[in-house]
Amino acid sequence: MYGTSASTLEAKVVILGSQGVGKTSIVVRYINKTFSPNSTSTIGASFMTKKLTVDDCKVRLQIWDTAGQERFRAMAPMYYRGAHAALLVYDITSQESFEELTSWIEELKRNMTEDLVIVVVANKLDLAPLRREVPYDDAQQFITRALGPDTLLYEVSAKDDNGTIEEIFVHIGRILVDRKQYIPVRKPITYLPMDEEPQPPKSPCCGF
């Protein structure tokens, strides 16, 4: 346990997965509590922050939402390098997006340390009754084999969220607090495939 409420932890969380699985929608649902059916594809990566309190420790998550298009795949290491947690996202109505998790898992195992917190998220649960292609039990068995029995699988709907998405990030924050990983505050940099140097989006909920 931490001695004072002034304890702080800053952690980098990266969101990975195929194009169209709803990575941006998950982040926007968590940060802004909203959903837009017409969100555009992410270019390179976008950056947001969210603060929460876990066991009297102030946690600020740096959330990196990465592009899913194949043409940006080579840039992925720039975004997940230095991450403390990763959300691997697939579309519950797309077997292909689920199968592509294998390459992400292999890449993270090659390039990241074993203490990286990985959570698997199946999005578009609202479409599951009619369009599900990935059975929960099959997904859980694969994740247990590939990542171990302690890795959690969440089925969520960024459209009709009932609080589960927030639970995911609280879970990550709790693991990191329990590990007492105090991370120095770093100035975030967003890398995009263009000349200009964009600024992270600002909102009243971001930063301390």
UniProtKB/TrEMBL annotation:
InterPro entries assigned to the protein according to its UniProt record, in alphabetical order: P-loop_NTPase, Small_GTP-bd, Small_GTPase
Keyword vocabulary terms for this entry: Nucleotide-binding
Keyword Oxidoreductase in record: no
CDD domains on file: Rab
PROSITE patterns: ARF, RAB, RAS, RHO
NCBIfam families linked to this entry: small_GTP
Protein name: Ras-domain-containing protein
